[in-house]
Amino acid sequence: MADDLAFELVLGFATETGNAAMVAKKFAQAAKDAGVDVEPQYLNDLTLDHLNRVSHFLVITATYGDGEVPYDAEVFWESLSSADAPRLDHLTFAVLGLGDSFYPYFCNAGKIIDARLEELGAQRLADRVDCDLEFEEPADAWTAQVIELLSKATAAAPTPHSAPGVVAQHDSRWHRKNPFPARVMVARELTGPQSDRSVHHYEIDLEDSGITYQAGDSLGVHPVNHPALVDAILHRLGVSADHLPAGREVPLGALLTEHLEIRTPSGALQTLVASRARDVRARAILGSRDSAALADWLYGRDVVDLLELADVSVDEFVETLRPLQHRDYSIASSPLVAPGRIHLTVAAVHYELQGRLRDGAASGFLAGGADTVRIHLAPNDGFRLPAPDAPIVMVGPGTGIAPFRAFLQEREATGATGRSWLFFGGRRRATDYLYEDELGGFLDAGVLTRLDTAFSRDRADGTKDYVQHHMLAHASELYSWLQDGAHIYVCGDADRMARDVHRALHEVVTVAAGVDDAGAHAYVNDLITQRRYLRDVY
């Protein structure tokens, strides 16, 4: 650190499901208790000029897609990774990565930010820590270590009531480690009988849980694994449900049903099977560094598919499995309309592969008629409505409609005056027009100013019609809305839709503003840094 640069700490985070934001908030509270004042900021809110004026920089980041930085760090990473990024020799830093070891590029966002900061001359305060899905313990340990080091740097002593690294408690007694057992009060199918998809509307009773939510939040649903999948595993292993694995106090059947992740093969199981697989091609793919080929091969497969490739003992198998994970769903209601309930819009995953029927872990559990489900709130502070008079543009095909139903409910309940424009898409109008009557009601009431729909399978010539096509068809008007201060929101599939919409938004600006690609890129980046372009994708 330069001699004339006083201690000043910046904490930046980038999140996908809200976990990185939660860890950042807990870190800030623990730091404050230890006498170190810091407020978490989105990485996109930070500039390299800002980093040049501070002495210490902490990063807490999730990883998105194929090893990319999350959406709310894209602009920051673009600057940091650019060829003309300034030297940061004065800076002391530490990085905490959150990820999922199922994916080949585990915690890659944290890794590349950590490496780039070091490359630019910054000095490491503590080694980078990469957290898997069970992130609380390593994140808390990193918090304690970093705060102790920062306390030494500032000569700040802990308060008498706490010690460095003591993290804030959860705001609610119900959280991902202690979900609330809620009743499912309503379950109805939204898609028609001829649809090739099955989308359901659920209403979950919060009762006296004390859980409160906001439009834009998500809900964590904790499933129970499908009995057919559990039975298939037991049959493959040649043991009964009462079998007790080594070192375990719970029988195997109960472990597989309620405690362990069996729908998505873990990285450890992939590695074990790769070392023993009888099938040469499967062995090569599982052991390959080609993430695209591996993802393609794994798509739709579960742990039974891997067990069929190699001889694995019960104890070896159990040790490779991760704890059963919750699934997050965007909330489809406003608390002003449904204060004691949370509505969800969930597409049931159900398909056949290699002669066996498969179900999504949580979507299958809900569609199977569950009357009680364990839940916890997953706040999404980065996906909120703007001022009531600000115009909004919402792009939400399929189940991506969920948070926008909540937004429209909220705007109607508050009497908001801002214009609103929704781009909704599905496969067929006759069977896949989710909440059609409600959207018509919002239009009639003036809550929804404009509605553009795209139904991909309805064209007689077989060409596909998607929401991004309608954005481009109305480029001039859409750009005019943006110029008038509109906030644009995108919710739904991350792999295809969100990327296509992102490209379409750039093209809208190119066409309507008459600028080149660089100009459109800069314009969209400004929308991102102003938090006027927000995504909730999965």
Low-confidence stretches: 156-170
Helical residue percent band: 25-40%
Rg computed from alpha carbons, rounded to a whole number of angstroms? 24 Å
| CATH C-level of the largest domain | Alpha Beta
Task: Determine the structural class based on helices, strands and strand pairing.
Answer: alpha/beta
CATH topology of the largest domain: Rossmann fold
- Rounded to the nearest angstrom, the distance between the terminal CA atoms is 40 Å
* Number of DSSP helical runs: 20
Oligomer: single chain
β-strand percent reads 15-25%
Report on the structure:
It is built from 20 helices and 19 strands. The protein has 538 residues and is an alpha/beta fold. The chain folds into four domains: 9-154, Flavodoxin domain (Rossmann fold, 3-Layer(aba) Sandwich), CATH 3.40.50.360; 180-221 and 326-378, Translation factors (Elongation Factor Tu (Ef-tu), domain 3, Beta Barrel), CATH 2.40.30; 227-320, NADPH-cytochrome p450 Reductase, Chain A, domain 3 (Up-down Bundle), CATH 1.20.990; 392-537, Rossmann fold (3-Layer(aba) Sandwich), CATH 3.40.50. Strands 1, 2, 3, 4, 5 and 6 form a six-stranded parallel β-sheet that branches. Helix 6 (227-237) packs antiparallel against helix 7 and helix 8 (267-274) crosses helix 9. The longest helix has 20 residues, at 494-513. Keywords: Amino-acid biosynthesis, Cysteine biosynthesis, FAD, Flavoprotein, FMN, NADP, Oxidoreductase. Residues 9-147 form the Flavodoxin-like domain. InterPro entries: CysJ-like_FAD-binding, FAD-bd_FR_type, Flavdoxin-like, Flavodoxin/NO_synth, Flavoprot_Pyr_Nucl_cyt_Rdtase, Flavoprotein-like_sf, FNR_nucleotide-bd, NADPH_Cyt_P450_Rdtase_alpha. This is assimilatory sulfite reductase (NADPH).
